[in-house]
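Aim 2 progress update. The chain analyzed this quarter is reproduced below.
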Amino acid sequence: MAKTTKLEKSAEKAYDKAKEAVKDARDLAKKVAKKKRPPVDDLKKDLKKAKADLATTPAKSAAPKSDEAKAGALYTPPLPHSAESDDLHAQTMISLRTTAKAKGLTGISRLNKAGLIERLERSGS
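Predicted structure tokens:
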């Protein structure tokens, strides 16, 4: 029983030391963070300078883009959906997976291209 209380006391001491170390580390981190902050006056000066630069610089007139140009930049057309061609090796993985899904094959997501081609050839014959 004496050993248990000794162990408990030493564990409590270690816990208290760790707690103090964490508290000290947090306090130091706060001090470092405060030191690294730029003074407010410097930020105010930079803001005034930026406003003055904006006022003196002529505004650029950007021609508004048409809706078609905006949509064209955002829209990427899908890959052409090809029916199963004679040469499966020439098809992309995406088209091979689409073909396999259309045939109802399962477990195709984990296959590489060679395995997928093999499964498609087996299901086709």
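The longest helix spans residues 2-36. The CA atoms of residues 96 and 102 lie 10 Å apart. These observations will guide the mutagenesis experiments scheduled for the next reporting period.
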